[in-house]
Amino acid sequence: MKSEVKDLALAPSGQMRIEWADRNMPVLRHIRERFAKERPLKGVKIGACLHVTSETANLARALKAGGAEVALCASNPLSTQDDVAASLVKDFGISVFAIKGEENKTYYRHINAVLDTKPVITMDDGADLVSVLHSKKRDLLSGIVGGTSITQVRDDVYLIDVVARARADERGSIDMLTTASANWICSRTIGCCGSHSVSPVIESFGPITPTMSPA
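Given the sequence above, the corresponding structure tokens read:
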């Protein structure tokens, strides 16, 4: 498993962070438990460019529990928690390419490393991953089912389906957003795997409950 993090010895501290966040993200935990039983994402490759924090770690755990192969890089090097990145690699077997404070060259090398895994679905905060996909890795576009983006996207730019959420209430939306992302990925993969659309789907997520169906 390829990864690049600061120091795997930081993993114990990162695991404690991840477990603490998990206790405060009950909806996502519910989805992870369901995904572990149903395995709706078995064999699906997901490339994510997100804040590498304890909250994102639990999203990655949920996706992996569902059977996905997850590769993660940082959308903001200044927010990366090095111990969390180390724990994701060492304790949870998730590929991570992120180092706090990494320079611009390293940042884009990590984005390319995630895209080199040939994901079927992308997850983005800031659209750098999908931008590199369109500008430098266009040969991968035909294999992409779609993606999620925590930003505004333009429907005349992207050649893949993108579900976008604007940062309306960032402080209170972490669990809702990760839950919505997990549900959308599950439903999109089950319903449309193998399809390709040239028109993005821009949607707003409403309230999410633990009983929400992924389909």
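DSSP finds seven helices and six strands in the chain. Try to locate this feature in the token string yourself.
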